[in-house]
Amino acid sequence: MKNLFCEAKLLWNKGKRKNSFQLLCDYLKEKVGEDALAVDMTLYENSESLNFDSFLYCILNNNKNLPTSFSIVFYYLWQIAPYQGLIISLLEKDFSQPSFYELYDLKEFGIEKKYEEDNNLIVTVLVEAAKKGILTSHEVGSAGAVFFQTILSKKMIEEVDEAKWGDLKLKLLEKLPIAYEETPKDCWKRLAEQEPVNLISRLLYILFSEHNHPSDMVWSRLTTIKDQMPGLQTELLKALQDINLNYSDQDIKEMVAVDGMRTYVQNGKQWIKLFATAIENPSEDNVRKLFT
């Protein structure tokens, strides 16, 4: 029930950087069938200012770390971490740079090249996310924007140098607008019904874990939901009720601790009820209870 990406980030924040990286490596190896990352962790162990998201950015934008391809790693990471950090890595990615195979001149050792960049993998997961409502073209502060959607607008894509992206730019400019138009108006209702755990996991991560927001920021965002998006508020409450009914206290406690980094919580079901109360009535007092 706990999210693997969030677990890796929590381990990183606790100073267990090798464990954090190994968790991602094991996940990707299980999906790909072989090692998808090759990183010398001694380069990153003692950099106190380097946070987990910056670490991921560093390794994803250096092909020396990617024995398979960026496309493959992005495809599988997106499935557990459809967040803005991966979009930033994608926007900065230069696909014209030499691959792992070329950088290490593996042809000279008689090793066949197994992987090519396949940007259709990237297009596939982003189009799917857009149709679900997880990915949006609405920029922060614009009408229709929801604070825990990931943003990839037409303008952001257009600003990428085509020399860096090749035909990926054209593919996204063609397919994403159509996918955004096909996003159902009741996308939050569908997510609450079909993926309640993923929906609440995402909310926990964005509110508490991604940037470690203080209580006043959480209060502001929950107030925005109540005042401007009552439909979303209703679906979040339904999803929380579903989780409380169908999962054990231990499962919920792990989810709250890992996805929301509320590691001090002792009773998962009780905290989820407090969370529901804060969503339904986001007074400063109700929100403050989520931090104690």
Can you lay out the helices and strands and say which pair or pack?
Elements (H helix, E strand, L loop, with lengths): L3 H10 L3 H16 L19 H9 L9 H11 L3 H9 L7 H4 L15 H14 L2 E2 L13 E2 L2 H5 L3 H4 L2 H14 L5 H8 L1 H14 L5 H14 L1 H17 L2 H11 L8 H13 L3 H5 L4
Parallel strand pairs: 1-2
Helix pairs in contact: 1-2, 3-5, 4-7, 7-10, 11-12, 11-14, 12-14, 14-16, 15-16
Q: Would you kindly provide a written description of the structure presented here, covering whatever features stand out?
A:
It contains 17 helices and 2 strands. It is mainly α and 292 residues long. It folds into 2 domains: 4-184, no CATH class; 190-291, no CATH class. It has a two-stranded parallel sheet. The model has no long low-confidence stretch (mean pLDDT 91).
Give a short summary of the structure:
With 292 residues, the protein is mainly alpha-helical. The protein has helices at residues 4-13, 17-32, 52-60, 70-80, 84-92, 100-103, 119-132, 154-158, 162-165, 168-181, 187-194, 196-209, 215-228, 230-246, 249-259, 268-280, 284-288, and strands spanning 135-136, 150-151.
Could you tell me the strand content as a percent range? Answer: under 5%
Shape: globular
Q: What is the domain tally?
A: 2
The string of secondary-structure elements, in order, is: HHHHHHHEEHHHHHHHHHH
User: For the terminal residues, how far apart are their CA atoms?
Assistant: 23 Å
Poorly predicted ranges: none
Which structural category do the helix and sheet elements fall into? mainly alpha
Round the mean pLDDT to the nearest integer and report it: 91
Number of extended strands = 2
Rg, Å, rounded: 20 Å
Please give the largest β-sheet.
2 strands, parallel
Helix content bin: 55-70%
What is the helix tally?
17
List the strand order in the largest sheet: 1-2
